[in-house]
Amino acid sequence: MPDQPMLRLEGLTRRFGPVTAVHQLTAVICRGELVSFVGPSGCGKTSLLRLIGGFLRPDAGSVVLDGEDITGLPPNQRATAMVFQNYALFPHLTVAENVGYALAIRKRPKAEVARRVDELLTLVQLRGLERRRPAQLSGGQQQRVALARALSLQPKVLLLDEPLSNLDANLRIQMRTEITRLQRELTLTVVFVTHDQEEAMSISDRIMVMHQGRILQAGTPAEIYERPAVEFVARFVGTANFLTGVLSNGTPGEATVTTRLGTLKIRADLPRVKSGNQVRLVVRPESIRLHLGVDGAGPNRLAGRIERTTYTGALLRCTVDVAGTRLTVDLYDPRHARAFRPGDTVTLALPDDPHILPESGDVEQ
Description:
This protein is an alpha+beta fold. The protein has 9 helices and 20 strands. The strands form 4 sheets. A 6-stranded mixed beta sheet has the order 6-7-8-3-9-10, sandwiched between helices. A hairpin with a 2-residue loop joins strand 1 and strand 2. Helix 4 crosses helix 5. The radius of gyration is 25 Å and the shape is elongated.
């Protein structure tokens, strides 16, 4: 059952001297779910993964796996398996010996080990490489060996600690597809740790954004990106423009926000925000339309000047100065966007449905 809890983290806390790496963290991960913990370096995500795997002991709180409290168990007695950032393959063993290592040390029959190794190498598409050693493999192949070894004991939860960080950009994309294929094919419960928000967005059922040992927001990739709970989340997951203004309610579902750049008309459900309150608008770069020249016709139009452009292949990113405020605009299919150049006068058409953050104390940036 996909909604049945597989892993419960209840009030987990871990300190290293005066530093609290994980602070009273509580989360539930369901059976067959791939959940990514993301956040900047030092936010506690790797410490959290090691707490789940038993490589660290919590100062407080508990880890409950499939209804069993495993907080006090060592790693080899937990139904979890971890793939480390550097893969941790044994360089003197062959591919087959690496994959079958955990089974061999548990003294499983040789025939069973050979059969299971063959199944796993078929699963990760490495048959024919059984006799090679890790040094004879590419980075992607080593990563697959590490995955196969982790799956050998059929863990209830697979823990992945930045497993793609050592791969080049194209191979990272291929391995994302491979991980999601394995996860769905085997109905794996996966906890994935990464600092790469794009990576997390592309593979996760849910994302949990961490900061200073706490979870700031948990939700689907779309929820995290489109409806960030606080400014830190909006800044960390993707790129965002922020406009501060005072809200004035109009007709139901409509309002205006008076900013230093002008008055913007917006459509929004505003149950949390009262008229007269100060708010922050989150405007994603891809939601802004750009036109050459000055065109004041229509709502939410702002005049600006392009300061610089950055061509990335998939998009043209423009930094536009609007009355002293810099806004980022992303234009896709750059073949048709190269008419925009630094120094051009342009008109920005802002969306009428930006996400609204109440202007309140946010976490430290």
